[in-house]
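Page 37, top half.
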Amino acid sequence: MTFWRPVSDAFRRSPALPYLNPVKRIRRRHEDTTGKGMAKKNTVEEDTIAEDVVEEDIVEESIPPYEYEQLDLTKQQIRLITLHSAARPSETISCAIQTFDTEADLHYVALSYTWGPDHPKQTILVNGQQLLIRQNLYDFLRRYRNYPKNVHKLWIDQICISQAHEGERNHQIRLMSHIYSRSLSTIIWLGEDSREAAQQYREYRHVGDVYTLCRNIYFTRLWVVQEILLSPHKRVLCGDTWLDLDDLFRTVHTNKSRSVLDLQLIESRYTSTAHKRGHETLLIA
């Protein structure tokens, strides 16, 4: 994919769909691809992020795939999801999806991330039906679903846009500036691979950890400059650790080491583009 990838009063969380027990109680071992083992405790103030999943339920093959209800492309409509919390770590990720007019008073959080490799794909439940998503997004949802502040609806391109519908994709791309600028905040998901560096930086403020973070593939993508600029509030999530993006930029300014040149380039793009403020001119084809 080359197009965009991927707080005030909260929305009331949409009532969960009737529980139909669509998940077979079969367990499979979750591979620790980082080699770093399970997160032992929360590292972010009073906030809590779900621990690494060791076992997962398997979704019944008989459950039908999710079918999108078509958006009215003559209007400015978007879909938002409500991510359900889990009663146990192995529970299948599930969410409810709804369609809204952008003119409504919407309270939602947007996600900025990289899609990552096409394989492997993981299954989640959307309105009780199966949807395949890529691993990086799956990791985010698994982390975020039991976060105490998961009280707002989410906009995530991979779920909220019908990827098989070219006309809809093009329609939604034209709304990207609106989606990010009108969000309550944007979560910048750097994935699981940067978790250790984020924890070390949060505790010790070592510039070497900033270098490790800025080498994340997220910061090599040009579109993130637009998403960062347009978002009114931004927080970075790496594994189970939250970071402040402006704090990372301040570290760049106060340290002259060549090891932060990559993040410095991102920061310079961010600050120079911030003077333009013309949202329509920021879209990249």
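Page 37, bottom half:
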Amino acid sequence: MTTTNNTTSTNRTTSQTILISTLPSEIWLDIISLIPYTPLQLLHLRLLSQRLNALITTHEKSLIRHLLRQQNENNSNSLQTNLSLFPDLKIKTYPDLHRLHTRTTGFRNLQNTITEIGEKTEELEWLAGRYEPLLHTGLLLLHRLQDIEPLAEHLKHLPYLSLSPPTSTSTSTLLPNPAYCAKIALLQSLPKTSLACLLFSLVAAVKVLRAKGPEPIGQSWCMRDAEERSEVELAMEECLLERGPAVLAGLLGIEGGAELVWAKRYGPILSILASPRIRFPITYSTSGSPLTSAYFFLGY
């Protein structure tokens, strides 16, 4: 009798396990919505169950598509304008959608702040005039550099970078970072006018930070400190290329108190970044004709 009960219990457990594992996705989603959990608990659950993680990811993508379609129908001009500003930003998840709206708001705040600085600062009054479109275009290109996704073709078309001249016995080569290669590929594909806007935005951002930014870039410099100041400004330009306009907004304190604290805390790091490092020249070209040259850092 005991053996029969154990067998029955085992069969029942097996059937329940099979039933749970074969539940339709819709039922799983209904069950999840009824369970009280914290974001951290949900993250742990997704890490433990590959099927649950795939299910939630797929459902999230479908919801995002629906939200974008609904927003497009209700306010098509606004949404399409925001998406056109950042063509390489892929909207697939909730964080992506939040990033789009946050970035759009932050970009407009940055535009207004720079215009206001230009109007109130005599040496920067040219920023509030006809050069504004050039600056805004350059800032958008800085955003695009952050959104570009590395592709296999980026590694194919870019040669390996040598740290030392090749010899007959050995060659010293360095495989570039895929994200770095993607940025270089994008820069090489840009027309001269776009590169000019990008360079202009870097120069203008440094001048704005020299007038209104925190130390060390915003401090007063002596004539004998010209070399050190140049290195700090070069490090600032590198930060903008690597992290985008968010660095400029943070150092100006545009996003509020928290961002201002971030700027003051990490501003001195520019002095460290300005220390000598290994660099190599990169020549941009269009249609085979050299355009301009610049230095990019191996720490990119």
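Margin note: Residues 72 and 80 are 7 Å apart (CA to CA).
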